[in-house]
Amino acid sequence: MKRLEEAFRVAKKNGRAAFIPYITAGDPNLEATVELVRALVRSGADVIELGVPFSDPIADGPTNQRAAERALAAGTSLTGVLAAVEVIRRDSEIPIVLFTYANPVVRYGVERFAEDASAAGIDGVLFTDVPAEEMTPFEDELSAHGLDLIMLVTPTSDRRRMKAAARFGDGFLYLVSRTGVTGARQDLDAELATNVRTAHKASKLPVAVGFGISSPEQVARVAALADGVVVGSAIVSRIGALGACDELTEEIEKFAADLAAACKK
User: Given pLDDT bands bounded at 50, 70 and 90, which one contains residue 45?
Assistant: First the structure.
């Protein structure tokens, strides 16, 4: 059984939604990223989502844009991100999903990327800017190297498009909680429950919800509906505020632990 499949199976068995924290790789630096992943594992994370920094992150709001800028300024590259995952794999079997745009992978070389990502210990890859109609070249290489392709669907995706995404996808289906870019929000979309039901009907994969979820209270509400909960900007914002200080990993671990606890159904 693949690591992602096992993570969702165990979470469901334990009466929980899987907790999936997101951080930008290389913010504030790649050495800190390795320690932050370890801290998130200790906090109760079921899956880690690592963002590959990109110069034009069109799906991201200001918080994640600034994190990408900091990571790029620190010299982070896709090669460096994969090397950091290799270090994480020395002592952790936590499933790791790369959250990336197509451009870094195309420049790296899709076949070479799939081979190197698999060797590094990546479990899945999510492309934010590749629709199902253009996914075949990526899916073929990822599948050939045992990597799950995580498909993204939105509140504007009808059931037909969700089914199309599900045909390509594996691991889990990532449902964007609302229209717009990433970033913490005070309120959840009023149609979220309906959208989760539509996603469940369209796919046999677990459904994880992300974008705009920032507090334990919101996590608990989403956990009651979905199989997984992704929290990104709220964590990334704290990393940005703390920077490379001695208290960084401890503070992130504490904050993430409260989010993980809220995933109990």
Answer: very high
Contacts of 48 (CB under 8 A, 6+ apart): 20, 21, 23, 37, 40, 41, 94, 95, 96, 97
pTM of the full structure: 0.95
Alpha-helical segments (H) within 78-212: 78-88, 102-108, 110-120, 136-144, 159-168, 192-202
Distance CA 213, CA 218 (A): 6
DSSP state of 146: T
Closest to 98 in 3D by CA, of 84, 109, 237: 84
47 within 8 A of 73, measured Cβ to Cβ = no
Residue 46: active-site member:
no
Could you tell me which residues come within 8 angstroms of residue 119 by beta carbon, excluding any fewer than 6 positions away?
none
- Active-site pick, 46, 49, 141, 170: 49
Of 61, 66, 105, residue with least CA distance to 82: 105
Catalytic member of 46, 60, 116, 139 = 60
Residues pairing with 22 in the sheet: 49
Domains of the chain: 3-261 (3.20.20.70)
Res 185 pLDDT > 60: no
Dihedral angle of Cα 179, 184, 188, 194, to the nearest 10 degrees: 50
